[in-house]
């Protein structure tokens, strides 16, 4: 807008009268009232192509304002940064190398847990044949629970700047425990090596690896976490094949060492490439966020996790034993059912996370849990090899989405990023407890492997997933009532 030059001295002259000063103050108020710069404008810009660079906003002074000579005021929002380290890259070589490193860590953690089914079947017919199915499943369940429970302590250590220490110690314990498992001949030896040693190492690695990826991605965070979590089903595909092929030829000891050497070799990748982007705050983080205990949607979601992870891994632990004990498949083919579960889970880690960035993580997780419950009920009626193959592929796909989306939902349920670690740790405490007791309960139900016992175990698994679905629906409704939107 063109201004008359003679009006400038009236505005800028320091000796202007008090009435002019009041007029300028009123004009400034008008300018603030009419500007388009607001929290909503910045929020809308953050949802654009790059959330680190919100769109610029403009404001124009009213035509009759004494400040009209300033013409159009342009305000550009500063790039979002954390602790002064610059905007979140949301891509680039360094960011994607963190994802590659996280893939390796997921192989070392959830990948081994997904493989335990073949160890369970082997132990029941070989060196641990005198132990019950429930006792043997405690080895795998302690692994899975420690992965979650140790995260309560590894989270604060990560925040304090000890990522490298956690990484090196965790990788050492996982590899060392796997080597020691190859030497074990009794139950307590396997429990200490494969259960406690490997499990503690997993707990030191898992939560920090997810936190690292979150530092490098914002808009594509769910997809990046999904890609990194694909490491676990890849390991679940490869390791059972290695075990079933090599064990008859070179024995249990050397087969387990081969897997340990593979873990040792690939562990070089995270050691070399994984680095934190945000410097440590230097502040101690509370283990418990007390505000979460008053956040009803958060509490309902965690309750859903309790039931889902209580029963989610029942097929992974027992599908091989079921196939051999009930003559559903041949003894040689049975270990490949675990491979098929994990093959389906590859798609379950990638596709749901890609959809979550568009439709909302909680909505996609709710759908995955509901379908997993239906499949678990369908498992009760399968009596042949073809049906077992179809079940393994489908259940692996939909249950994989449930696992991979959980960290993203914890972030969405946190009011600010400073509380994400504490709330995720609290949730992992509940999840770890569920993983600890879930499969041993299934082993106690299956008892002497009679058909009726097997049906009871399957019903236990399906019922837990059905209850989890109900809690996730409750979370969805509560969040809509609070935020007035269906996409979360």
Automatic annotation (TrEMBL):
Q: What is the lineage of its organism?
A: Eukaryota, Fungi, Dikarya, Ascomycota, Pezizomycotina
Q: Would I find Electron transport among this entry's keywords?
A: no
Keywords attached to this entry: Membrane, Transmembrane, Transmembrane helix
Q: Tell me where in or outside the cell this protein is found.
A: Membrane
Instruction: Write out the GO MF terms.
Output: transmembrane transporter activity
**Which Pfam families does this chain map to?**
MFS_1 (PF07690)
Q: Please tell me whether the keyword Transmembrane helix is annotated for this protein.
A: yes
* Membrane-topology annotation of the record: Multi-pass membrane protein
Q: List where the protein spans the membrane.
A: 99-123, 135-155, 162-181, 187-210, 222-242, 254-275, 296-321, 333-352, 364-382, 388-413, 425-446, 458-479
Q: What is its main location?
A: membrane
Instruction: Identify the species of origin.
Output: Apodospora peruviana
The name this protein carries in UniProt is: Major facilitator superfamily domain-containing protein
